[in-house]
Specification:
Structural class of chain B: mainly alpha
Distance between the termini of chain B: 51 Å
Shape of chain B: globular
Largest sheet of chain B: 3 strands, mixed
Largest interface: A-C, 40 and 48 residues
Chains: A mainly beta (103), B mainly alpha (273), C alpha+beta (163)
Radius of gyration of chain B: 22 Å
Number of helices of chain A: 0
Structural class of chain A: mainly beta
Strand content of chain B: 5-15%
Number of strands of chain A: 7
Helix content of chain B: 40-55%
Strand content of chain A: over 45%
Strand order of the largest sheet of chain A: 4-3-6-7
Number of helices of chain B: 11
Helix content of chain A: under 10%
Radius of gyration of chain A: 15 Å
Oligomer: heterotrimer
Distance between the termini of chain A: 27 Å
Strand order of the largest sheet of chain B: 6-5-7
Largest sheet of chain A: 4 strands, antiparallel
Chain lengths: 103, 273, 163
């Protein structure tokens, strides 16, 4: 089971700001280990944020996004107490969903 | 033989010098400012939080053959008290009659409370990109619980004073293939390596700023790194023999650096290049 | 001080640092970024493209119009380490529905593509890897299918003793 994300969501003047820290190697697939073998690519490809059952943010990522990725975005139409779910899927098909309450 | 006019040589030398970026004073101010902006942009969303979360879980989970919590561990502020403990380490512990830093103390507790062997507890002291280190996670958690606390490393016990004195000797000790000491890079003001300003660790202000920013998520390592790692890496860069994890030398040097930072507000885990 | 560069290189290699320094390689070896995991939307052609032109084509961007109507926020001009370069982009172009980040000198140019449903700010902050100092592009797509390209140079340094 992949590590949980750290998510913070705050609201100001009707606009929610979401900050996410994900735990992921984001391996490019272009590095070699000490023995000279290629370390296989392992990186998040898709990120989706949901609020009240609808997607409020989407991202397609390549391996050039940094290890332990950080993401910040803003969306409207939310209020304190609402929940935001963030889901990522990586190139191996592994996935993680975490939820945060907007404060 | 063609004679080269002295002024062409002078111009060429000047051009070469400016290419190499040699200056009598510190580097261009806009580069320093931009690096400051880089560091500020990194401050939000520090991956160290992932280690803090893992460390907290390790602290609060029964582990080891005895299936016991680490919450029975005394980090210097009383049994199970984590808040403020890091900012008052290293310190003397009566139960072992020696000075310990956070890592040696954590290993001590893992062995005596949870019945891990010393070998098990120190099997992976530093994460290597594939294997994780429980110790790094625990240090991150304990350090985070000292955020905002003023550094207050004690110097009352004889062994604390001895550790400080030994650490000071090590700091100024020149050796290895390059005859480096810690002081070679960190014992004078205004030094730098390329674009990296070097803190003068015997100046109180620099010492506070430097020490209170470890442990840190090291971007270049992709790992959370502790003082034990930092000193190990310094020894490597000084071309010294490898600094043994948890050795008296490592504790003494940490005591010297930590005590010099007294009065500074602890601000780790930080994020660094 | 001795200038024994050869032994230093050997020492670095022995400590595996060569692998670390090669973490984000400068030269594409014809490496593919890969294929999409099942069940998700992922533009493999765009992520595998190895020139800016091919990437723009795979994104359907044709020849985007240059624009300065993009704010780069807290994006620094110098990164102390290319492994983590913070990028913040806000589009001021009305009707923005997507922003893609391209890095000119990376082996695969497309780093990420963000899309903003109705009601979401056309803005993002994230961190990318840069193999060397390079132009970074923000490709803006608007609802009416038009594309715009903003650019910014980011220099990458290697701090300290190189590790």
């Amino acid at each position: 089971m992949p590590d949980p994300m750290r998510i913070r969501a705050t609201i100001q003047d009707g606009e929610a700001t979401v900050r996410v820290l994900m735990s992921h190697e984001m391996e490019t697939g272009q590095r070699k280990d000490a023995a000279g073998n290629v370390i296989p690519a392992h990186f998040i490809q898709s990120v989706v944020a949901m609020h009240n059952g609808r997607p409020v943010f989407r991202a397609e990522w390549g391996p050039a996004v940094s290890k332990n990725p950080y993401l910040q975005f803003q969306f409207g139409g939310a209020k304190a107490g609402d929940k935001v779910q963030i889901t990522w899927v990586d190139n191996k098909g592994e996935t993680r969903t975490d939820e945060v309450v907007i404060r | 033989m063609k004679r080269i006019a002295w002024w062409t040589v002078a111009i060429a030398a000047g051009a070469l010098l400016s290419l190499v970026g040699l200056r009598a004073h510190a580097q261009p101010r806009d580069a320093v400012k931009e690096i400051e902006r880089y560091r500020e942009a990194l401050a939000e969303g520090n991956p160290a939080e992932l280690w803090e979360a893992r460390g907290e879980a390790l602290w609060k989970t029964t582990r080891g053959p005895r299936k016991v919590l680490l919450e029975g561990c005394d980090l210097g502020k009383g049994l199970g008290v984590v808040k403020g403990a890091y900012a008052a380490l290293p310190r003397y512990f009566a139960d072992v009659d020696r000075v310990m830093d956070i890592e040696t103390r954590l290993v001590q507790c893992m062995v005596t409370l949870q019945s891990f062997t010393a070998a098990e507890a120190t099997r992976q002291v530093f994460g290597d990109g594939t294997k994780r280190s429980d110790l790094e996670a625990l240090v991150a958690y304990v350090a985070a619980e000292s955020k905002g606390v003023v550094m207050d490393v004690p110097m009352t016990h004889l062994k604390e004073r001895e550790a400080y004195a030994l650490g000071e000797r090590i700091f100024f000790f020149r050796g290895g293939s390059h005859d480096f000491s810690c002081a070679s890079c960190h014992g004078e003001p205004g030094k730098r390596i390329r674009l990296q300003d070097l803190p003068n660790l015997i100046d109180p202000k620099d010492a506070q700023r430097a020490y209170t920013s470890w442990p840190a998520y090291r971007v270049s390592q992709g790992e959370l790194r502790t003082m034990q790692w930092r000193l190990f890496d310094c020894f490597r860069q000084q071309r010294f023999p490898a600094l043994q994890f948890g050795s008296d030398a490592s504790i003494a040097l940490t005591t010297f650096l930590a005590r010099n930072a007294n009065g500074g507000t602890f601000n780790a885990p930080a994020i660094k290049r | 001080m001795h200038g024994r560069h050869g032994s230093r290189r050997e020492a670095l290699k022995a400590m595996g640092l060569v692998a670390v320094l090669a973490a984000v390689p400068r030269r594409a070896l014809g490496q593919m970024a890969g294929t999409a995991a099942p069940g998700i939307q992922w533009n493999a052609a765009a992520f595998n493209a190895q020139t800016v032109g091919e990437t723009l084509k795979a994104l359907g961007a044709g020849t985007p119009a240059p624009t300065a109507d993009v704010s780069w926020g807290a994006t620094p001009e110098i990164a102390e380490n290319g492994a983590v370069v913070p990028v913040s982009v806000t589009s001021k172009i009305p009707g923005t529905e997507a922003i893609a980040i391209l890095i000119e000198k990376n082996p695969n140019k497309l780093a990420a593509n963000f899309s903003f449903p109705e009601g979401t700010a056309p803005a993002l902050s994230t961190r990318v890897k840069m193999s060397e100092s390079s132009m970074v592009y923000a490709l803006v797509k608007t609802k009416d299918g038009k594309y715009f390209l903003a650019s910014r140079e980011i220099k990458v340094t290697l701090g300290g003793c190189g590790g």
